[in-house]
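May I ask for an example protein's residues together with how it folds?

___
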Amino acid sequence: MANSIAREPPVFLSTATAGRGDRRLALVAVFISLLIFLAAAPFSRLQLPQMWTFIPIYESALTIGDLITAVLLFGQFSILRSRALLVLACGYLFTALIAVAHMLTFPGLFSPTGMLGAGTQTTAWLYMIWHGVFPIAVITYAFLKGDKRAIVLSRSSSTITLVSIVSVVAAVVALTALATIGHAFLPGIMRGNNYTPVMIFVVSTVWMLSAVAVVALWVRRPHTVLDLWLLVVMCAWILDLALSAILNAGRFDLGFYVGRIYGLLAATFVLLVLLIETIALYARLARLLATEQRDRRREMEKRRRIFEMSLDLILIVDGQCNLLQVSPSSESILGYRPEEMIGHNASEFIHVDDLEPTREEIRSVRRGQHMRNFETRYLNKNSDSVAMVWTGIWSEPGQQYSLIGRDMTEKYLADEKFRLAVEASPSGLVMIDGNGTIVLVNTETERLFGYKRE
């Protein structure tokens, strides 16, 4: 059992160490991305038609994908309480929201200068902010993921998540306001649809941040499956920047379109891995639930057989001692069929002289005391007394007692017959228990030894 538990795979890919198969698959994804890049790079400045519908379709898909990824990562944070996952979730949420602002300010899409009071440089700056902040989030994730001190314990995960979401939204609003309302204070990085020399410095800085993110992920070992696919994401991120902001000439050339396809791929890699993980978790949960239900049915069947086959009387009663279940043995012990007793109060079947002692025993168990064996005389269907010895437990969640009673009538009658036989014996007889204590002396023994029985 211990070995099977030890071999149980980690629940989340953010805690599962990447295997050889994971590395091969990730390497294939990077290799294919690189081949496409090498094929597109020489033609990155080739001007293509201005397809305005491409922008909202691309950025809507990217926003939806990043939002789903952020939700899944926030969900894992709520369980694992890892600051690394919290930072990464915030990074994905930031890219989703900033992509919306980028789309709404794209010049010529909704108005000649975009929406939100945008200037001619707004969209380009938002694109650079977008592609600069996410690598910073990945770098932070890489350095926090192996630190055991980076576990949040002080506050509830829902509070931390809410504060994080509000902070990300506030940051996006502030940066969007800077790029729109305050665009005059930012240096120009676009001239029409082409880049200015200032763009070279900005793009180089953002590209270096992406390269540092790749290095940070690589050196922080061991790699989890999530780390591995973040490496694939950052490789695609670098190729995106290279095609759409370094090798191309500006908007609506081949580099512009292919670069954004890389951006969409970068947003999709981790999302697909997390969705596959979620499907696997649901399948695993379904298997565990099916196993639990099967075990529960077996346990219930076992209890049912014990209940039905028991020679002792088994009673299930509520807090007011109303009979909820009665074992079939009631007919042989008391003469009542179970359906004749169920729904009645147990006091209806107890000898009147034993009612109060029985109630006191029941009350003591309800107060949390251990139920000791106690004797109670029941009345059978013929109103004859039946001596019963009871034991049982109280279930607080179910608010009910489970009692097992053994019919001791025949034993007591046999003991009484034996006692009368001993008394009537013409020979002296002494009964001694297992501790050597005399428990019975007949009249003849008293006469022979001259001691009184007491």
Observations:
- The chain has two domains: 10-291, 310-409.
- The domain at 310-409 is CATH 3.30.450.20 (Beta-Lactamase).
- Residues 435 and 441 are 16 Å apart (CA to CA).
